[in-house]
Amino acid sequence: MKTNNKTNQKLQNSAIALMNLVLFFSASEKAEAQKKANIIGIDHVGINVPDMNQAIGFFTDVLGFSPVTTLGPIPLDDAWKKTNHMQAATGPVTIKMIQAGTGANIELFEYKDNKGSTKHPGGDDIGASHIAFYIDDIKQSVDYLKSKGVQFLGEPFLMPSGDTEGESWVYFLTPWGSKLELVSYPNGKGYEKNKPTTLLWSPKNPLGKSNVPENHQDILSESAIHSLVETHLTIWNEKDVKKRESLMNEVYTDTIEMIDTHLIAKGHSEINGFIDGLHKKNPNSRFSHIKAIDFNHNIARLYWQNGPSEKPDATTGMDLFIFENGKVSRLYVFVDNKK
């Protein structure tokens, strides 16, 4: 049971904290891979259609979407076709971008005199894909689409347990045979009950708000947060490794992450080692407040200075704390540039 609790701790965090992180963090504080890729989100999903007019009619008249931009017909040279694994005799391409409600756009491609395969990939074929549309009432949507002659591949299925508990979904086909999906989870998904650190984006909830009621978020009192932050300062000023570890057990979760501009330290051991290195490098320096601690639900900010008694502000910066289950789960360290 203890092991399960430790595993769950990494998934638990306040959705309110996630919303506030947008205000506090730049790309340099995000995960290293995403920072390097500089990916913000999904702009569009592209699909090929055999007949552009048919596709536009379906997305517009049946689904209520809006075509916005058009390109083409654009002739494709042999080099382009070879690079993009296309048949040499395929003709020009026409492209239309469709605004599909709240979420990613849909980009439609129609190739004139298309010499590529006209067979849709099977569900287990490599490259098979589908687009899922969120709706609030799946029965209403299914009834409406059936009245428009849309073919469904079965009936809506309600997920009974697991991470997707509470989600209903069903597949349906476009007039040209592409598979699409309706999905609905008006009361959220099962995984959200554990207050995960990361929430899946949803078109019904674009800011990432949790479906867990706020009174279940275990918001710490200001006095509790103040005590934890003060003990955090004590940890960073403590020179004894074992004493620091004992205090860390009181203040930090087992899976705490410390994110600095130049490194990410995970767990008590790595952070303890980092602090030990600071003491060895600057044995006479201490951390202290610059001003009072700021609070915002399960987030706090501490503006600090570090240095010897003769120059206590040799280095200044700010720590931003994310709390879960009564402890610090993430610590973002901002060090001011030296003048």
Automatic annotation (TrEMBL):
Domain of life: Bacteria
UniProt KW keywords: Metal-binding
UniProt KW Metal-binding keyword: yes
One Pfam family here: Glyoxalase
Gene3D superfamilies per record: 2,3-Dihydroxybiphenyl 1,2-Dioxygenase, domain 1 (3.10.180.10), 3.10.450.50
Domain VOC: 41-185
PROSITE patterns the UniProt entry points to: VOC (PS51819)
Family annotation (InterPro entries): Glyas_Bleomycin-R_OHBP_Dase, Glyas_Fos-R_dOase_dom, MMCE/EMCE_epimerase, NTF2-like_dom_sf, VOC_core
Protein name: VOC family protein
Organism: Flavobacterium plantiphilum
Lineage, top ranks: Bacteria, Pseudomonadati, Bacteroidota, Flavobacteriia, Flavobacteriales
